[in-house]
Amino acid sequence: MDAKKPLKSALKKTATSASSASAQTSAKRKHTPSVSTKTAAGEGNKRVKGNNNDNKSKPNKAKGNNNNNKPKQQQQRQKKSVTLKTPHQSGKKGGPVTAGSAPVKKVAPKPKKVEVIPEGSTFEDFRVVAGTYENVLYGIDAYWNEDMSLRLSPIFAFSAHIGCIKSLAIGGQFLASGSTDEKIQLYDLKRRKELGALLQHQGTITALTFHNKTHMLSGSDDGKICVWRSKDWECLKIMKGHQNTVHSIAIHPSGKIALSVAADHSVRLWNLLLGKQASMTRLPQGAGLKVVWNPSGTGYSIMFDQEIGIFDMATAKCIRTIKPAKKTRFNTMHYYKDGYLIVGCEDKMVRVYNTSTGDLIKVLVGHSARIKDVDMVTVPFTPEETSNKEMRAETKMVDVLTSVSSDGVVLFWNLEEVVMVAKDGEDINMKKSLGEFKTDMRVTCLAAQKGYWKNVGAETVAAEESDEEEGIDMEPTQDSDEKSDDLEDSDEDDE
After folding, report:
1. φ and ψ at 165, to 5 degrees?
2. Which of 36, 89, 97, 228 has a Cα-to-Cα distance from 159 of 20 to 30 A?
3. What is the pTM of this model?
4. For residues 350 and 418, what is the distance between their CA atoms, to the nearest angstrom?
């Protein structure tokens, strides 16, 4: 017991001396901040080792003390050291970065794409391309006059195939033509260049159709339907099912399903997401010559020689039948909105029917040979030969019907006047057209497109500025009768 008393008194004396030493050291730092205090600190640490309660005022902390025990200058130095630049953070990217935070990456804004109109380009309001028996592709440019008539001029005529051209299709800037030479020729209407030929089919190319500008379907005498991706023109799928010539293909507005009719007296529904046949129905009327969806996708029509059946999509049943007033042959047809069906006939007439009632509304008179094809295009009425990029909201839009007969005569009609119901006693025959052009060739098929640099190009620039693109992105696979990955549906930017 007596031995412990001197130890307690010694500890008290040591604590007193340590506090006086710290006071002297702090006084020296105020006047001479550059003087080192290592010796005093070392002595203090030795003296107070093992005692944490009475040393809060000492300059150097023992183990376990808080940061509040440090001198102000030392704390300030530590705060400054927190904001120092690290070698990979300083200089080039983002400048100094505080500790604990990720470097800030500066992203430069993307420059807006501006299409440069090539020298020599025309500002046509719309263009019509015709395929002929003579293997020639014939292009016609149409311009509005102030009196709402059309000024028509040929733009190109060249031999595209070594056989008769049987089918045409336009999707965006692409033009595809099919022939008896078993080739699909591809052209870029924007750059006016030939892109090459597709050689997948083994037979006459009888049907071509685009979904927007991203994908194309083709049918042939070999009974196969090929799915093509326009980005690189790869054949994504070969859908087998028909046992004879494919006459017509129609893609649903959604792009997820398609219908086809063929010489095997069947209509087949295809799942384009899987690239496989979904169903097949035998047609008692015989071979379907053409199939088309209405614009809303709620129904479709199948054309036969002397009959047209209008079907409901939900039930797949024929809800109405259209037959000509006198015996003739139907050659082609096209929907206008959901309520009208425009039909080209063998007797040189183009007839317009009401799909709700089946009544005949109007007969377009003017051709002197059988009607081979019809197509429709909607364009703004802008007689000025300038771009429609800055088109005003009040600009009138005009629906134009184009019809062509086998003698090479192309007629243009205003559909607003065509679908007007004739009054009592008024003649339903309509002879007034917007314009007429003679190709002096035997035309087999026809396709119409809005003028690229006046309308389509302006829409493309607007879409790029708003980053809007649409289309179905499909994965390449093998034939439909083999196991393969699903074709996926998503958005694509191909340009």
Report:
1. -80, 125
2. 228
3. 0.71
4. 11
